[in-house]
């Protein structure tokens, strides 16, 4: 009867929009007591919009938009897509130049050459790692954008900070309900993100999470999961990005958003086909019910 019950459980999962890698996954699903949620693209829509452009003295805003937009056009990051789309719109639909070269620096931003300039777009650390100072004026613009709950990225070229872009993303409609549903099943929700502390705290408050890990580099997301496991917790993690893949694989149970990247899906035990966070609670309920019928 055991294999039959597991097959029924797996089939029922498919109906709910949950793809289960193998029947043994139901056991780890049942045991989970902690659920780590990636922020961008998991709790929030991941669809960001360029809201503010701050330009350093003596810099033309159109140059900031054109060079940053051109570089970000080559990246799939949600911030990059917002910057490229926002730049095109603010430049009245002008075609952005094609970068001569482009490098994605995971968790920090992008670097490349546009119109002969070495351009960087990303976190302040991307600049400091390259030995480029952040003038007081740019630091103030950055702090102001973050205080408004935005993710702020700095634009630099030819070794000088030239602008600060503020982008924002909205919490998904069902996220607060999904978190409440997980709590009702006895799980402790935790928010994990590479984004800044102010944005992370604002999102956590909005959805009802009180444990937050912010400004975590992609490779350090794994360490957060391991630390929680070392406390004796059974950790489930939900994520969507390439930057979540290692942590999803390390977690006792990895859940990928079906709307996310292939890397996240491949690293996970379960896929939430429609990218609906509320289905996480359905998966846990299903595993508990399926295994209860076996025992
Ligand atoms: P998350 O964990 O929220 O999905 P990431 O680890 O992908 O975030 O990125 C962390 C931070 O690195 C972003 O909030 C942003 O400041 C910076 N960053 C990453 N990629 C880019 C990019 N393409 N352009 C600008 N900034 C970026
Ligand atoms: Mg993400």
Put the structure in a nutshell:
The protein is built from 13 helices and 13 strands. It is of the alpha/beta class and 295 residues long.
Shape: elongated
Per CATH, the class of the largest domain reads Alpha Beta
CA radius of gyration is: 21 Å
What is the makeup of the main sheet? 7 strands, mixed
Percent of residues in beta strands: 25-35%
Question: Strand order across the biggest sheet?
Answer: 1-13-12-11-2-9-10
Q: Supply the number of structural domains.
A: 2
CATH superfamily of the largest domain, by name, is HAD superfamily/HAD-like
Number of strands: 13
Which CATH-level-2 architecture of the largest domain? Answer: 3-Layer(aba) Sandwich
What is the SS-derived class?
Answer: alpha/beta
Mean pLDDT: 94
Small molecules (ligands, ions, cofactors) in the structure: adenosine-5'-diphosphate, magnesium ion
Written description of the protein model:
With 295 residues, the chain is α/β, with parallel strands linked by helices. The protein has two domains: 154 residues, HAD superfamily/HAD-like (Rossmann fold), CATH 3.40.50; 123 residues, Calcium-transporting ATPase, cytoplasmic domain N (3-Layer(aba) Sandwich), CATH 3.40.1110. Helix content is 45%, strand content 26%. It is built from 13 helices and 13 strands. The strands form two sheets. A seven-stranded mixed sheet has the order 1-13-12-11-2-9-10, with helices on both faces. β4 and β5 form a beta hairpin. α1 packs antiparallel against α13 and α4 crosses α5. The longest helix has 16 residues. The model has no long low-confidence stretch (mean pLDDT 94). Bound molecules: adenosine-5'-diphosphate and magnesium ion (MG). The site of adenosine-5'-diphosphate has 23 residues, from α3, α5, β5, β6 and β7. It is found in: Cell membrane. This is Cation-transporting P-type ATPase B.
């Amino acid at each position: 009867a055991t294999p039959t019950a597991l097959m029924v459980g797996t089939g029922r999962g498919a109906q709910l929009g949950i793809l289960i890698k193998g029947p043994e996954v139901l056991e780890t699903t049942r045991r989970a007591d902690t659920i780590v949620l990636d922020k961008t693209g998991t709790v929030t829509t991941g669809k960001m919009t360029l809201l503010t452009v701050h330009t350093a003295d003596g810099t033309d805003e159109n140059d900031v938009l054109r060079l940053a937009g051109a570089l970000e056009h080559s990246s799939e990051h949600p911030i990059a897509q917002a910057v490229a789309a926002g730049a095109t719109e603010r430049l009245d639909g002008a075609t952005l130049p094609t970068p001569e070269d482009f490098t994605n620096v995971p968790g920090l931003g992008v670097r490349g050459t546009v119109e002969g300039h070495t351009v960087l777009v990303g976190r302040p650390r991307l600049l400091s790692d390259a030995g480029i100072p952040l003038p007081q004026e740019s630091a103030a613009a950055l702090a102001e954008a973050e205080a408004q709950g935005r993710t702020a990225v700095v634009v630099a070229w030819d070794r000088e900070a030239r602008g600060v872009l503020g982008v924002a993303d909205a919490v998904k409609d069902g996220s607060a309900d999904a978190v409440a549903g997980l709590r009702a099943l006895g799980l402790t929700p935790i928010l994990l993100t590479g984004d800044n502390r102010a944005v992370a705290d604002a999102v956590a408050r909005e959805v009802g999470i009180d444990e937050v890990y912010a400004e975590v580099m992609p490779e350090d997301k794994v360490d957060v999961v391991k630390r929680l496991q070392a406390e004796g917790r059974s950790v489930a993690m939900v994520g969507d990005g390439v930057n979540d893949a290692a942590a999803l694989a390390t977690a006792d149970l990895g859940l990928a958003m079906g709307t996310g990247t292939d890397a996240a899906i491949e690293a996970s035990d379960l896929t939430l086909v429609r990218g609906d966070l509320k289905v996480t609670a359905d998966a846990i309920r299903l595993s508990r019910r399926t295994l209860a019928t076996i025992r």
